[in-house]
Design brief:
The complex is a heterotrimer of chains A (498), B (272) and C (304).
Chain A: H1 13-34, E1 37-39, E2 48-50, H2 53-73, H3 77-97, H4 109-132, H5 139-155, H6 157-170, H7 179-204, H8 212-230, H9 234-256, H10 261-281, H11 283-286, E3 292-293, E4 299-300, E5 303-304, H12 316-319, H13 327-352, H14 355-365, H15 367-372, H16 377-403, E6 405-406, H17 413-426, H18 431-447, H19 455-469
Helix pairs in contact in A: 1-2, 2-3, 2-4, 3-4, 7-13, 7-16, 7-17, 7-18, 8-9, 8-10, 8-16, 9-16, 13-16, 14-16, 17-18
Chain B: E1 3-14, E2 17-28, E3 32-36, H1 43-50, E4 58-64, E5 70-72, H2 80-85, E6 87-89, H3 102-108, H4 111-117, H5 122-126, H6 131-148, H7 164-176, E7 182-186, H8 194-209, E8 214-218, H9 222-228, E9 231-236, E10 239-244, H10 246-250, H11 253-258, H12 263-270
Helix pairs in contact in B: 3-7
Chain C: H1 2-32, H2 39-60, H3 65-92, H4 100-122, E1 127-128, E2 136-142, E3 145-150, H5 151-173, H6 175-185, H7 187-192, H8 197-223, E4 225-226, H9 230-245, H10 250-270, H11 276-290
Antiparallel strand pairs in C: 1-4, 2-3
Classes of the chains: A mainly alpha (498), B alpha/beta (272), C mainly alpha (304).
């Protein structure tokens, strides 16, 4: 590479030191109160404990790290490599062999581990620069590269989709599929479905909805109340729950859909909160914070998946002459979620190629131009809102029947935020992006449940990191819904297709 | 001849500012009417009133639709004007759907026809009704217009990726895909080079003569205005100061004064 | 009458707190057009820092209340603005030219992160603080009921009014304020005429964070208990206040904050405590239906 021949730019050490000092100073300001002190919950002893080691360690590490990065920018890779490597090896050594606790910078193992990981990453970066000369890729180059990659992924959708679908169908019968994995998979598929539903509203129609969870809640409570009060089965209630959620969408959308952008966002957020507060306080109807329990489980065309057959009837296993296994119900719920998700995807893919779907995307691109072409903005947005809400309602019914118990606690703003994050991280409007993002955001944290208290911390950080890395989402590539040259597309936007 | 559009005593006020002041004019059917005037004369405001983006303060805009009865545009909602009265428009700053393909842009323009054919989505989802055939017809119509403006080979590209001149042409044919009786063009020649400008003249003549569409255009490029318009309306400070065929308007002293004295005549002499 | 007056005092106190937080939302929105969802967490961090500062002062034996209050106020503003600055520098600046949804998701991510960060460092339990400012005056004494106007409420109202006055002067009279207003009009143009846009935006976050931290301090004094979750509710209310007043407008944020405080107080007093948030959001939706850009927001003329 040519860059290697050129002399490395001179380093302004005074400036680098000042900069690193500034960073260390900021870290001290950030850490001194919240990390240096700890409010003691137990009464009796002193109300405040202090521990400044962590603050000093954090400031030192920030100082060195900042200096290292500055040196890397100035192409002084060798000393950085040496320093970072020594630090990384030493820290990892102490962590692994547990030599002397005093040597560790922080008390928390996770924090020490994170710092060690960062040191390893810095060494790797330095090593890369030592052997490959300077190749700071600019954001544009990286974006373009990722765009090509995601275009490739979309092109491959015609076989990636069925492959994923095949994998999803075969999952319960894979050797390592235990109860826990199936539970996680069901959860992921539920979020994929919700993501696909919200994708209609946010990704296609471009309407920022921060209260999607309201429709999820309406679906769940509709199903639960209908099932409990009228003794109706899951399959009868499901369409009702969807219709109720769609109706809620229209009820909210009709007055507010002329609001633009962020005004719509706060109104939908408020609506989500209103629904939650009503569920919490209308005790006679919803049992408030106690929640509704004893929600009936779904049946397989009227056959319950249970050990005991109902009076004078059959249960699933007895009807088919199979051995009863407690996993049956889990597998059944998994397939149910998968079927509902596929329905969502199928309908979305179809609608995208119908005039209303194109009008949604056109509205997202330019509402004024849409009006000049005779597209009715409010009605078109309302259909997106209602259809998105309907799938949210289906998701809610599934949630209710799976848990057997629902309470307002399950329908907080965080839930809306997670679903929205799945849509945006996946790449707005991309069906297969939603799958990827749901696996990343829901599946991974579930797998690492042991990290418990660090889980949500890492979750928030991951959202920030992915957005910084790919601001337009992981797979932000759009294929036209109709082509002049290759006839109608058969797999323009992937995702498992049936 | 009966005018297709009659604007009567149109006034538009924004707070204290009178952008359009008691303007009346007619646009004869299947002809090209140009609305000209210095910057800030209220031309775009007239267009915005006609196409429903503004509700005029007072006045009346009568459109005599050949297939239906009369429409009073000031009483209609923005989206209904193109859909029912058949008035389409383009914008001064091009407003395509940049992230959608060229062909998709032209299909969105046929939204209302296709919506009916798809049984308002429900029919097409269930697979009943002849949506596939309707979509084929819509694509054929789009292909016709793409050939007219030499964009057929870019049909599957993103509209936003087209060069500027091509975007202008696309916006015009997108408006034509709505099947209008009247087409309002807001500075269609702005930013075009002379060759593109000549092509535009030809396209507009074809739209008038072959498709029998009435054209209303705002334009600063006098070569376009004088060459193709049949009728000219001149606005200045929101008032109509002159109206008539090009030859008459060109020599109207009031018009010359509005355009800073002799500037307009020089403009004319500079062009052979 | 007495009851009404009492609710008026309570509502105003609460409204002042919301107004201070709302200013941060509205300034950031005005300048870079993003909803800074993590702003509520900055408020929460301010409350925690104030809590720790009170305890630390107690340990070293500074007991005279006005002095303690002053030290805590300054320390809280300083340390919390570091969080505002870091938030912008680390999370938002890299995304300044990205789609707006990306910034929104980042802000939600930061909000989740900061909540859990405080929970990890300080524990999840609710933290009670001994009352710092006690006493007050009572008037309109009629039989059993009397209107209480505590010294604490006076402190809150006086400090807030002082801050708002100083802040208004800052925006209207100083070079920083001018730069800030210029950036609000047009970022690109502002940088062309030589305004350091990066610094102006960073300072906007610092100012917003310091105002939110004062709100956090007042919340702590007023309610006496905090936990890591208070930022969410207060943040949503304050954001609602900013939108109600017309987002981007600083007087609008103050007006919106006061209105929301009053709505909450009166709704709780005369109708039901449980549904006070429903009333707040319902009024927001109603206002937006009739005035789509809020009470003091500039009407949004459609450019065609």
């Amino acid at each position: 590479m040519r860059a290697r021949a050129a002399a490395p730019p001179s380093v302004d050490w005074a400036r680098a030191l000042k900069d690193a000092g500034l960073v260390a100073g900021i870290v001290v300001l950030l850490a001194i109160a919240l990390a240096g002190f700890r409010i003691q919950d137990e009464s009796g002893g002193p109300p405040l404990a202090y521990r400044f080691n962590d603050v000093v360690a954090a400031a030192l590490i920030a100082f060195l790290g900042r200096l290292g990065i500055a040196a890397l920018r100035a192409q002084r890779a060798v000393p950085v490599l040496a320093g970072a490597l020594v630090f990384a090896i030493a820290l990892s050594g102490v962590l692994v062999f547990g030599a002397d606790e005093q040597l560790l910078p922080f008390q928390s193992t996770v924090l020490n581990g994170t710092i060690a990981l960062a040191a390893w990453m810095l060494s790797a970066r330095a090593a890369w620069l030592v052997w490959h000369a300077a190749s700071e890729t600019s954001t544009e180059v990286r974006e373009a590269r990722m765009d090509r990659l995601s275009a490739q992924v979309q092109k491959l959708a015609w076989w990636v989709g069925p492959l994923l679908l095949g994998l999803a169908v075969a999952l319960p019968f894979l050797p390592w599929a235990d109860r826990r994995l199936l539970d996680i998979a069901t959860l992921v598929v539920t979020y994929i479905m919700l993501g696909w539903g919200l994708n209609i509203v946010v990704g296609l129609a471009g309407l920022l909805d921060l209260g999607y969870v309201a429709f999820y809640a309406v679906g769940a409570y509709s199903y639960a109340l209908l099932a409990l009060h009228f003794d109706l089965g899951f399959w009868v209630c499901l369409p009702f729950a969807g219709i109720m959620a769609a109706f809620a969408g229209i009820l909210l959308g009709f007055p507010v859909l002329r609001l633009r952008g962020d005004y719509l966002a706060i109104v939908t957020l408020g609506f989500g909160e209103i629904v939650r507060i009503i569920l919490l306080n209308w005790y006679a109807f919803t049992k408030g914070p106690d929640g509704l329990s004893g929600i009936p489980r779904p049946t397989f065309f009227g056959l319950p998946i249970a050990r005991e057959a109902p009076e004078g009837g059959h249960s699933f296993h007895s009807f088919f002459g199979l051995e009863y296994s407690p996993v049956d119900r889990i597998i059944f719920l998994y397939y149910l979620a998968l079927a509902l998700a596929l329905l969502t995807n199928l309908v979305t893919l179809r609608i995208r190629r119908l005039p209303v779907g194109r009008a949604w995307e056109a509205l997202r691109e330019d509402e004024i131009a849409c009006r000049s072409l005779g597209v009715h903005p409010r009605n078109t947005k309302l259909t997106a809102f209602a259809i998105g809400a309907m799938f949210g309602g289906f998701g809610g019914s599934f949630f209710a029947t799976r848990q057997g118990f629902i309470s307002p606690e399950s329908f907080t703003f965080l839930e809306s935020a997670i679903i929205l994050a799945i849509v945006v991280l996946g790449g707005m409007g991309s069906q297969i992006g939603v799958v990827l993002a749901a696996i990343l955001l829901i599946g991974l944290p579930e797998v690492f449940r042991e990290l418990n208290q660090y889980r949500m911390l890492a979750f928030g950080l991951a959202m920030v990191a992915i957005m910084a890395w790919r601001p337009r989402g992981l797979l932000a590539h759009r294929e036209p819904t109709v082509r002049l040259y290759h006839g109608p597309p058969d797999a323009s936007d992937g995702g498992p297709r049936a | 001849m009966n005018p297709l559009l009659s604007v009567e005593h149109l006034t538009m006020r924004f707070g204290g500012l009178v952008a359009v002041d008691n303007v009346s004019f007619d646009a004869p059917a299947t002809s090209i009417t140009a609305v000209i005037g210095p910057n800030g004369a209220g031309k775009t405001t007239v267009f915005n009133c006609l196409t429903g983006f503004y509700k005029p303060t007072s006045g009346c805009m009568r459109l005599r639709h050949p297939a239906h009865s009369e429409f009073l545009l000031e009483r209609m909602e923005g989206h209904a004007i193109p859909a029912k009265a058949g008035v389409a428009r383009t914008f001064q700053n091009i407003r395509l759907f940049p992230g959608m393909s060229v062909l998709e842009n032209l299909l969105v323009a046929q939204h209302n026809v296709l919506m009916r054919a798809s049984g308002y989505t429900i029919g097409a989802l269930l697979g009943v009704g002849g949506y596939a055939a309707a979509e084929r017809r819509a694509i054929d119509r789009a292909r016709y217009w793409l050939e007219r403006v030499r964009l057929t080979d870019r049909a599957d590209a993103d509209a936003g990726s087209l060069p500027y001149g091509a975007q202008r042409r696309l916006e015009i044919v997108r408006a034509m895909c709505t099947g209008p009786v009247m087409l309002c063009l807001d500075e269609p020649a702005a930013g075009l080079n002379p060759r593109e400008s000549a092509e535009l003249n030809e396209l507009l003549t074809v739209i008038r003569d072959e498709h029998r569409v009435t054209l209303l255009l705002i334009e600063h490029d006098m070569s376009v205005v004088m060459e193709i318009s049949d009728h000219i309306v001149v606005l200045d400070y929101g008032r109509k100061i002159s109206e008539g065929p090009p030859a008459a308007v060109r020599n109207d002293p009031k018009v010359i004064r509005a355009y800073l004295g002799e500037e307009m005549e020089e403009d004319e002499e500079a062009r052979p | 009458m007495g009851y009404f007056l009492q609710q008026l005092i309570n509502g105003l106190t609460l409204g002042m707190i919301y107004g201070l937080i709302a200013i941060g939302y509205t300034m950031v929105y005005g300048i870079i057009g993003m909803i800074n969802f993590a702003h509520g967490e900055i408020f929460m961090i301010g409350a925690f820092i104030a809590f720790i500062a009170f305890l630390a002062l107690g340990l070293i034996g500074i007991g005279w209340v006005p002095l303690a209050l002053l030290i805590v106020l300054v320390a809280t503003m300083l340390l919390t603005s570091a969080y505002g600055w870091a938030l912008e520098r680390v999370a938002y600046r890299p995304l300044r030219h990205s789609p707006r949804l990306a910034a929104l998701i980042t802000a939600i991510g930061m909000s989740i992160f900061l909540q859990n960060y405080v929970q990890l460092l300080q524990g999840a339990r609710v933290k009670p603080l001994q009352p710092v400012v006690t006493g007050g005056v009572r008037f309109f004494e009629t039989g059993e009921f009397a209107v209480a106007f505590s010294f604490l409420q006076m402190v809150i109202i006086v400090i807030t009014l002082g801050l708002m006055l100083g802040f208004t002067l800052l925006i209207n009279r100083t070079a920083l304020g001018r730069a800030q207003r210029a950036c609000q009009q047009d970022l690109g143009m502002a940088s062309l005429v030589g305004i350091n846009v990066d610094r102006t935006i960073a300072l906007t976050f610092v100012l917003g964070a310091s105002l939110a931290s004062v709100a956090g301090l007042m919340f702590l004094l007023n309610y006496g208990v905090i936990d890591f979750y208070i930022g969410f509710q207060a943040g949503i209310k304050a954001f609602t206040a900013a939108v109600l007043g017309g987002i981007g407008s600083i007087p609008g944020a103050m007006l919106g904050g006061l209105l929301i405080g009053l709505i909450e107080a009166f709704w709780s007093a005369y109708f039901s405590v449980e549904y006070k948030d429903v009333a707040t959001f319902a009024i927001l939706i109603l206002v937006l239906i009739f005035r789509p850009t809020g009470l003091l927001g500039k009407p949004d003329v459609e450019k065609v």
